[in-house]
Amino acid sequence: MSLERERDVALVGTGLAPLLAAQAYLRKGFSVLLLNPEPDFFGEDSELPMDPTVAVDPRSPDVLKSLELMRSEKMAGLLGPEFPGSLESWSRENASSYFDPKAPFVRSRSWNWVGAPDADGAFLEFEARGWRPQFTEGLASGRRIPGFTHKTGEEPPFRALSLPRMGDVDVDRYRNGVLEFVRSRLDAADFVDAAGLIEPTADGVRFYQSGTPRSVRLKHGVRVFHTPRLGPWMQSIGLAGPRDLPAVASWEEWTLISRDPLDASQLGIVGDAFVWARCEGAPVGPIHELAVLMPVLPGEKPASAASFMRLGSLVQRILNWDRFSARDLRQRRLSARLPRVDSPAGRGRLAWLPGCDGALVAIVEEVGRFCAEGET
Length: 376
Fold this sequence. Notes:
By secondary structure, the protein is α/β, with parallel strands linked by helices. The chain contains nine helices and 20 strands. Strands 5, 6, 7, 8, 14, 15, 16, 17 and 18 form a nine-stranded mixed β-sheet that branches. A five-stranded parallel β-sheet has the order 9-3-2-13-19, with helices on one face. Strands 1-12-11-10 form a four-stranded mixed β-sheet, with no helix packed on it.
């Protein structure tokens, strides 16, 4: 195995995080070696348009920090500079404005917690930050849940805490744009999918590319971006032990078909489930695809009878549907807690960033901080 020419830094990971890091290091003038142990950067599908942990307790410090990132103006300000093209914004107020129809969108919606614990305390926390929360009750709160159907003569027993101008983003459009940009900036020898037997060394990294062994000397070492699929490899090379890695939780994202058009300006949070109108770009025309994101409870298996019964309970008891049909189910494994914002693990020649999955905007912020703390 011959030693190849020197690169400045090697980035190991799958998903959006190592691609964002590649952009950051290329802007510094670094030469970059990008190693993806998976055949597809987005096969793990570990990025989400919003942070699902905000359903737990809307007034906890971690959730408040995450909600700050989810404000539509803040989200657009963080995502725009890292996207190699135009990033559009949509809200019900500017729905008639001109848009680039192929660009990723940050959509401004009202988020509505139905039956949230300590909603009064959360209201005061939101108000102190100038976020203009509202309370609604009965039918007015039911109508803030996409897909809700009102049964004549019945007043729904709902009380909703609403927060306007929260954002979500077109994940697929955003990450595909970053992928194509990075691919265009790197030679084929430096953009390696399905990299095998990756092993950091004292002065570089060894790996296999298409069955051929390669060894590259690195000036600044290796940076690793953790997602659940990288956990076993990180333990195999001694980079992390089981206690060093975030716990992993399973989630199910269902796509249901609604008989009636859905309100794209609202997002409902009912218990630990998220409900919103699924669309790409600016919501144009009637939308009939309802997305439901739910955690898989401990002891359950994904797509099990138990999870299907919980979905059915949500649809029948909250949305008041007599029947429903599911078009799609996406299963995800995500770090069970928010990405850490303290110092990343290690420094110098080998460092790694935990929890590079979940809310896309949090990944962008964390990777930006991680790269800024490194070499300049």
